[in-house]
# Entry
Amino acid sequence: MKMFRILVIVLLLFFNCSKDVDVQTFEMEPPLTDVLTFELSFGDENTIDKDEFLLARPRSRRIVVNQNEDIYVYDEYKIKVYDKNGNPKTIFGRMGNGPGEFRGIVRPLKISPEGILSVYDRGFPSYISLFSPEHKLIAKRSIENNEIFKSIRDSYKLERDPELYALGENEFILMGNDVQEENNPQDDVYYEYLFHLNQGDVNLITKQRNVFTFISIIGNAFSRGGTGFTGRLNYTILPNRRLLYSHAAHDASVENGIGTAVLHIVSLDTGEMNDIQFTYEPREITDSEIEIYDYMGESKSVIMQHNSEILARKIKSALQEAGYHAPFHSIISDRNFVFLIYNKLFLKDNQFLRNGYLIYCIDTIKQKQVSSFLLEELPDFIYNGYLYNIGESTEGFAVIEKYKIDPAVYGK
# Structure
């Protein structure tokens, strides 16, 4: 029998040793505004005189910046590299299946603090290609056929397409979940996992219950849906081989009207761990936000419609149990600073409308929050006090925009 699948809107998805806890108390200051100063844009015919470096259709989160502030952009099946002033430097990669080649379904680029570039090329099979700071191919790994990746997926029943971050030729951070139709546990409980893989050794950093994605299976009909309101597992890599992670649901709590969230920092070399706590103003999940899930789409199939109704009940139950919005939905870092990004929303005529982003800045060396600020758009990349986004020129062509971030964001 043909398997039916239902596409359900997923809101807001973009989508351990001794322990020292540093509890910070402070009055909640209003978030900073107007923190960006435009510095330059490049990539169109007005700024680039070499045709091969003109930008065609770069997508969000396909930008990274290395320690020299060189800017890498995935565009036209290639990695185009510019210096910090937007001047062309080099191009590597091309369309294809061979070493150093890409098929085009590329996930967000990642770059390690040491300058190792990861290009995750999705498909079947999927590959991750690693490039040195000199833009030379280090290795190309198959996601499906690599023994280590396959062993983890089989042992933990993970999804086929986990998230990978390369720290070296044989060192990776792997994050995935077991929310898939083949599992379907009786207790309807699924998990998110975070691993450190190094030279064949596998270390499970954390395992957390999944509270943002839900499935329903009736016969051969499979449905999947979810909500970002409840929070998920996030991580980022810091200098000196440190990993910061936090689960926006399980590592956050509200007491007496004050929200507290915990960020975990673990050394990838020693396993030493430190926690940072910060406070935030919690926002309750309203009845209107819960009731929006009463409508999950209509279907001509009775089974598919029933699946949608089951998903709606599961999501609404999870929202009622949570009570409050997650304090953040994603994490990015700039050297030793961490940005916790909360997607601000408001309701109008029972529809959710995005209304910018509230971002908390945490200094991981001083182990405290140093600011909060507002942005109208989600950053594509932040490094060394600069924000980079894909924008559009006055003529309608794609450009990379670079902004200077107000030092007050960093507590200076």
